[in-house]
């Protein structure tokens, strides 16, 4: 079995290296295209310049305020989306009739372009973080509900019976059996909630806001500040990818631990 | 020729000098319009090894559910140590047929699960878990996750997890059903050792006649649905025994006796008439 594990590990490492090679290749290609002036420098700047500009902006602290604003908004939206989505998921799971009624609504929810409600949110809550938080949660909550339902559906019946055989109450069963069993699925919900929060909030800032990374990108775009705009875009890309990969790695570790030999 | 002692009373009433540990009286279980079990009576004698055999779908697992308090009978009464059963009573441990190990916990944490939930003193938990791991031959795997173990090893983890809570009545629902024949025989030996050393009463549900014949003091043969006991077979084995008794002549008689009843019932269960 150790030998099998080794083989799997080697294969995984090879896949990771290939992935990195693809990204590196793309960056090099982009750099070459820009340096050889195959595209207009006013349209696209070389990745190396994006990186050096970003480094300068981070070092000077000029975007610290925007970063803090966007990240705190995203953090609040994710925590709320996960908490509300999980609670609703547990409640809906316990009420099969309610679930039957809600299922088609949850399934078709994603066809609603939530952004059209953004002006309404601003009108109701004012031009501050609240409408952005609502926008950030709008997709995260249903994603978390669906992930919770999926996770709870997959708790093996025998584990629930085991919990009863140890005379565990409802809360103890939830904490010590249901939650750990559903954790990999819940994590998928968290991952989606995080991605949706970034999309919703940065896009919202882009449309209408007084600060934040989305606002800074829009501001740079309007002022033809290509270097700033691309540097900020690079920053968002790196942070979001990094966070998602961390969660993905954690998810993978949980799954591997559980994969039956 | 060896004698297979048969209880004259189909309810399986044991000799009066022996103490009744758990009892079912007039128990029935109905699922919708389907009568699954009974009416059925059973007295489990304190410290005995009792097995239940019967055709598929005869309500063996329902019997375990009702006796353990995981399920409620529609009629009749269930008592454990003289008290009515409502929910799984303290002192009852259950081992299920399916793999019930918690995949997110190490072997040692799995085994400690019940004790931690009951708030047992940590030093006492460590002592008992060490003993149970040693007893089930799992000491070297204490830090492993169930996914790293074979099916037989995972079932040992589940048995160890039940063992540490020091149950006085151990209920096993076809615990070796998914294992190969050799592993089953060896696991049977371990189960006998566990039974002898703990002094617990054991009720084993099984579909394997040889397993029942090898392990048990008494074997209840159930009819096809709705399941009732049509006979209780006493094996008369000494308390000190192991899988080597399969070589004894008497083992063949016990198994044949079980099959003579079960053949008829199994044919009924699959909707065929008895063939002479």
From TrEMBL, chain B:
<dbReference type="InterPro" id="IPR017871">
    <property type="entry name" value="ABC_transporter-like_CS"/>
</dbReference>
<dbReference type="InterPro" id="IPR027417">
    <property type="entry name" value="P-loop_NTPase"/>
</dbReference>
<comment type="similarity">
    <text>Belongs to the ABC transporter superfamily.</text>
</comment>
<dbReference type="GO" id="GO:0005524">
    <property type="term" value="F:ATP binding"/>
</dbReference>
<dbReference type="InterPro" id="IPR050166">
    <property type="entry name" value="ABC_transporter_ATP-bind"/>
</dbReference>
<dbReference type="InterPro" id="IPR003439">
    <property type="entry name" value="ABC_transporter-like_ATP-bd"/>
</dbReference>
<protein>
    <submittedName>
        <fullName>Nitrate/sulfonate/bicarbonate ABC transporter ATP-binding protein</fullName>
    </submittedName>
</protein>
<keyword id="KW-0813">Transport</keyword>
<keyword id="KW-0547">Nucleotide-binding</keyword>
<dbReference type="GO" id="GO:0016887">
    <property type="term" value="F:ATP hydrolysis activity"/>
</dbReference>
<feature type="domain" description="ABC transporter">
    <location>
        <begin position="22"/>
        <end position="249"/>
    </location>
</feature>
<dbReference type="InterPro" id="IPR003593">
    <property type="entry name" value="AAA+_ATPase"/>
</dbReference>
<keyword id="KW-0067">ATP-binding</keyword>
<dbReference type="Pfam" id="PF00005">
    <property type="entry name" value="ABC_tran"/>
</dbReference>
């Amino acid at each position: 079995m150790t030998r099998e594990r080794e083989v799997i590990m080697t294969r995984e490492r090879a896949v990771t290296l290939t992935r990195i090679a693809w990204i590196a290749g793309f960056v090099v290609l982009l750099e070459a295209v820009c340096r050889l002036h195959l595209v207009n420098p006013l349209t696209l700047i070389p990745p190396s310049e994006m990186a050096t500009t970003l480094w300068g902006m981070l070092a000077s602290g000029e975007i610290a305020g925007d970063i803090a604003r966007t990240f705190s908004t995203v953090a609040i939206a994710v925590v709320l989306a996960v908490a509300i989505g999980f609670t609703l998921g547990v409640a809906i799971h316990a009420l099969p009739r309610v679930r039957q009624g809600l299922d088609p609504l949850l399934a078709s929810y994603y066809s609603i372009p939530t952004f059209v409600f953004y002006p309404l949110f601003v009108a109701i809550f004012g031009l501050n973080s609240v409408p952005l938080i609502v926008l950030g949660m709008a997709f995260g909550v249903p994603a978390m509900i669906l992930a919770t339902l999926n996770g709870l559906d997959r708790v093996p019946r025998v584990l629930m019976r085991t919990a009863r055989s140890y005379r565990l109450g409802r809360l103890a069963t939830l904490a010590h059996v249901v939650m750990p069993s559903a954790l990999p699925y819940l994590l998928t919900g968290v991952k989606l909630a995080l991605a949706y929060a970034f999309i919703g909030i940065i896009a919202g800032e882009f449309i209408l806001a007084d600060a934040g990374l989305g606002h800074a990108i829009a501001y740079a775009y309007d002022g033809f500040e290509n270097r700033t705009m691309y540097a900020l875009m690079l920053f968002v890309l790196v942070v979001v990818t990094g966070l998602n990969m961390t969660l993905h790695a954690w998810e993978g570790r949980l799954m591997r631990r559980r994969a039956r030999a | 020729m060896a004698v297979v002692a048969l209880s004259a009373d189909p309810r399986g009433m044991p000799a009066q000098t022996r103490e009744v540990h758990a009892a079912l009286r007039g128990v029935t279980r109905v699922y919708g319009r389907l009568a699954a079990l009974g009416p059925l009576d059973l007295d489990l004698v304190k410290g005995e090894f009792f097995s239940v055999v019967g055709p598929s779908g005869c309500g063996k697992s329902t019997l375990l559910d009702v006796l353990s308090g995981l399920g409620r009978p529609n009629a009749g009464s269930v008592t454990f140590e003289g008290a009515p059963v409502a929910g799984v009573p303290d002192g009852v441990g259950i081992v299920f047929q399916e793999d019930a190990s918690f995949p997110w916990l190490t072997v040692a944490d799995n085994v400690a699960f019940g004790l931690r939930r009951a708030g047992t003193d940590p030093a006492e938990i460590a002592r008992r878990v060490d003993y149970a791991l040693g007893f089930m031959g799992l000491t070297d795997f204490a830090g492993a996750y169930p996914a790293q173990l074979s099916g037989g090893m995972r079932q040992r983890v589940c048995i160890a997890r039940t063992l540490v809570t020091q149950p006085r009545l151990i209920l096993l629902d076809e615990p070796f059903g998914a294992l190969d024949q050799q592993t089953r025989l060896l696991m049977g030996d371990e189960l006998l050792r566990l039974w002898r050393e703990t002094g617990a009463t054991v009720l084993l549900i099984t579909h394997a006649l040889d397993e029942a014949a090898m392990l048990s003091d008494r074997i209840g043969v159930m009819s096809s649905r709705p399941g009732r006991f049509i006979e209780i077979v006493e094996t008369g084995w000494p308390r000190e025994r192991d899988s080597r008794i399969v070589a004894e002549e008497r083992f063949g008689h016990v198994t044949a006796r079980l099959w003579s009843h079960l053949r008829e019932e199994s044919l009924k269960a699959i909707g065929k008439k008895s063939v002479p």
